[in-house]
Known about the structure:
The chain is mainly alpha-helical and 240 residues long. The protein has helices spanning 2-16, 25-32, 45-67, 72-93, 95-101, 106-127, 138-150, 153-162, 167-192, 209-238. It starts with a helix and ends with a helix.
Amino acid sequence: MRHLMYGRWALVELLTNxxxxxxxxxxxxxxxxxxxxxxxxxxxxxxxxxxxGAMFCLLASSTCHxxxxxxxxxxxxxxxxxxxxxxxxIATSFYPPVYYSFMCNPFFCYLYLGFxxxxxxxxxxxxxxxxxxxSEFRKYRASLFFxxxxxxxxxxxxxxxxxxxxxxxxxxxxxxxLMGVLYGLGAAIYVTRIPERWMPGKFDxxxxxxxxxxxxxxxGAYTHYHxxxxxxxxxxxxxx
Length: 240
């Protein structure tokens, strides 16, 4: 039992190492000395879910690019894992803003979380269908992921109405708009194949649309990471 408890504590400490100092275990202990003894740090699982989704997406994409040239069969499998990773990233990106915005309103919290989770699962299942891999469905693939991300407008507007007097609501919304712009721009470049469509053959090695798409996805995920830190600071200090 002692080893089991120690293992669980070590896992929690390991997970918190990905956070800045003010959100680490030591930082939380220092913060606890400055707030009411009854105030406890909020749960971190939505933030960790987002980090897990982002890491799965980038790992799946890297593996796909590494192994897709092996054979037609392996390429068939890896492309599906790649699309599943994109859907996982989009779905888990909703978890921190939705949970921390509506943690004091359980009905809307679980309504939004349930909707985006089901939509993410449906997108993954649809992406696994063989006919979806054809080149003529390229625009539809991008549109499906775009619509999935665009569904986040509803909880963002709801958050601004519910917390209109909280400065953190405006700060997080700014990050979320920037994240949406980065993801949307990446999807647009991916679909239109810019810039190689303007100068064929000039961007075969570097600078083509797929590379720009990945850069913008990483930038969007990094923006959302900082967005999640604001949520943690806000809810740790104020709770409900």
